[in-house]
Amino acid sequence: MNTGQPNWKRIALNFSAVLARWLLGAAFLYTGLSKALHPVDFLKLLRQYDLVQSSLPLNSIAAALPWFETFCGLLLLVGIAVRGTALTLMVMLVPFTVLVFHRALAIQSALAIPLCAVKFDCGCGAGTVFICRKLAENVLLIVLSGWLLTGYGRQFSLRFSLTKSHSHRSAPEAGRE
Amino acid sequence: MFRHVNKQLRLYHLADLTPGKSVCPLRRDGSRCWRIRVNDELIQPVSPGRRPRLKWVLLEAVLVAVIGAIFGLAANQVSPRGLALTRNYFPAGTGRLLPRLSPAPAPPNVAGTNSMPIDSAQLLAAELKEKGLQLIDRLQAVQLLHDPRFKQNLVVFIDARDEQRYREGHIPGAYEFDPYRPEKYFDAVLPVCKAAEQIVVYCNGGNCDDSETAAVLLRDIGIANRKLLVYGGGISEWTAYGLPVETGERNSGKLRDPGK
Question: Which residues contact B160 (CB under 8 A, 6 or more apart)?
Fold first, then answer.
């Protein structure tokens, strides 16, 4: 079935995507666990966003989100339901990034300092960070999630797609040609 | 085999793939031409369009989200540090939405001065006053630590941080009282607070508002307002000035090296 020369570009792309999958998975595993181990700290940080007023939804988000991120990180690391997980993370990351940016703007306006000088703990699991760095990190994570959505990064995965027929027909083949 | 053929067939219009008809993937160099007989059902290219693919990914995402949410809530229930979902962790509107100005403690280079910036201290004092609480500075806290009433438990220090941070270092003789898990500490702290004449509550200092939360909690369960004093500089200011810090349990006698 070979078409001649191995497609090195595709092989490189696929292995880069595997690295991206592992990087994304490790990032979410780390941030998820660091929040899950200190849920009260995360709750306090989450509250600063003023998203909900009543205790039950606020506590539920603070309780479940760190473990949810851990779960998604694990799925990506072992390669289960990769595209679905990548889509879920992307859907999560975009509004989170917007919220962090809005909060940074509020702090910037209160302290009258340049935006990139704003430094605070956004509840992202990495402690106090400069906002510009955090935004760049988030954009990178969104891009990586988007890339995994295209179907690359299939190697070393337990079950790339939960739907068998789907997995057979739509992903770019990993350097097998 | 079929998987690969399936990919090749995607190059063609579905209309061309009638049973029995041969198709030939065009190669630029014309060196090889596949002749694939499409006369059985095995290699039919089922819906190669974008929509079904997106549908499956969406379904998978929903599945991941639902299982992840269930996993998250279950893990929280199992975790010893898990949150109680229905509890109000922020009584009486404690906590602030924006950090105070200049939150970091100043270095101890000017002896005898309060390290909290004046605007920050005024802001905090105003916030506490609204709640009927009083702010004290480091000098007042030190004075109270050396007050003869301290040894008789008439002046009490309350550390409003979590257990781990308390054990890493607290003001000598301070009681541990994590306001987010108060039920764990009520037995030890309540009788002492009721008997005390003055209660100094502190946390990390800077942006930390756990001392305020703890003070409000104590006030709400019947400790008189006038007794409650909030040390705004907190343990970070205390440590920065090289004041004594006890590690481990209360009255463990283990004092940390002031240099650390």
Answer: B177, B178, B179, B201, B202, B203, B210, B211, B213, B214, B215
Mutation target among B76, B162, B213 for the A interface, most CBs of A within 10 A = B76
Q: How is residue A172 written in tokens? A: 């770019």
Distance CA B66, CA B64 (A): 6
Q: Convert the pLDDT of each residue in B50-83 to its tens digit.
A: 445 788 899 999 999 999 999 999 999 999 989 9
Each residue of A56-80: pLDDT tens digit?
Answer: 999 999 999 999 999 999 999 999 9
Burial of A40 (0-12, 13-18, 19+ CB in 10 A): middle
Beta-carbon separation of B1 and A1 below 8 A? yes
Tokens (6 digits) for B251? 């009255």
Chain A residue with the nearest C-alpha to that of B3? A168
Q: Which two tokens stand for residue B14?
A: 């579905």
A94 CB near a chain B CB, below 8 Å?
A: no
CB A88 to CB B65 under 8 A? yes
Is A43 in contact with B83 (Cβ distance < 8 A)? Answer: yes
B-chain residues within 8 Å CB-CB of A44?
89, 95
CB-based burial label for B93 (10 Å; 0-12, 13-18, 19+): exposed
For residue B124, pLDDT beyond 70 = yes
* Per-domain boundaries in chain B: 1-59, 115-240
Longest alpha-carbon distance in chain B: 103
User: Is residue B93 within 8 angstroms of chain A, CB to CB?
Assistant: no
Q: How far is A136 from chain B (nearest CA, A)?
A: 23
From chain B, the residues in CB contact with A87 under 8 A are 57-58, 60-61
pLDDT at B95: 54
Most confident of A22-31, A36-45, A114-123, B210-219: A22-31
Superfamily of domain B115-240 in the CATH hierarchy: Rhodanese-like domain (3.40.250.10)
Residues of A in contact with B90 (CB under 8 A): 47
